[in-house]
Design a protein that fits this description.
With 104 residues, the protein is of the alpha+beta class. It is 39% helix and 30% strand.
Length: 104
C-alpha cells in the first residue's frame, strides 16, 4: 500500500433481488442489481464525498465529514459478515476501497 493512501472498509450484501453496499468509515450506502453495480456506485459516492470534503463546497467542514463513521451496528455487521465469509459460503462480501489522502 502506498503510504499516501487511506483504506476504507466496506461490505455488500444481497437482499432478495438487489445488493446493498456500505462504507462504514463514512456511513455511505448504495443499492444496485448486482455486486459489480453496487460496488461501482459506492466507489463513485466515496470519491465524490472525499472530493467535496477536501476541495469542493464542503471543505470548510472537512474535519467533521472525514471523521464521520457508521454507527456501531454497521461495524458489528461488517465483522459478522467477515466471520460468516471465513466459515462458509455466503452472499455477502467484504472489500476495501483505497483512497488517496490528497485529491487528484
Amino acid at each position: 500500500m502506498d503510504p499516501k493512501q487511506l483504506i476504507l472498509k466496506c461490505y455488500a450484501e444481497q437482499e432478495e433481488n438487489y445488493w446493498v453496499a456500505v462504507c462504514i468509515n463514512f456511513n455511505l450506502a448504495a443499492q444496485g442489481d448486482s455486486f459489480e453495480e453496487v460496488k461501482t456506485k459506492l466507489e463513485a459516492m466515496i470519491n465524490d464525498y472525499v472530493y467535496d470534503a477536501l476541495v469542493g463546497e464542503d471543505k470548510a467542514y472537512a474535519a467533521q465529514l472525514l471523521s464521520r463513521s457508521a454507527p456501531l451496528s454497521a461495524w458489528l455487521r461488517f465483522h459478522f459478515i467477515r466471520l460468516k465469509i471465513a466459515l462458509c459460503h455466503t452472499h455477502q462480501r467484504i472489500f476495501d476501497e483505497t483512497m488517496p489522502l490528497r485529491p487528484a
